[in-house]
Amino acid sequence: MTILVEQPEFEIGFEERHRVADGGFVAPTINSFGHTFRGYHVESERQKGVEELYRTNHINQTVDFVRRMREEHGELKRVEMSIWECCELLNEFVDESDPDLDEPQIQHLLQTAEAIRKDYPDEDWLHLTALIHDLGKVLLHPAFGELPQWAVVGDTFPVGCAFDESIVHHKHFQENPDNRNPAYNTKYGIYSQGCGLDNVLISWGHDDYMYLVAKENKSTLPSAGLFIIRYHSFYALHRCDAYRHLMNEEDRENLQWLKIFNKYDLYSKSKVLIDVDKVKPYYLSLINKVKEILIPKNP
Ligand SMILES: O[C@H]1[C@H](O)[C@@H](O)[C@H](O)[C@@H](O)[C@H]1O
Ligand SMILES: [Fe+2]
Ligand SMILES: [Fe+2]
Question: Considering the entire predicted model, what is its pTM?
Answer without folding.
Answer: 0.90
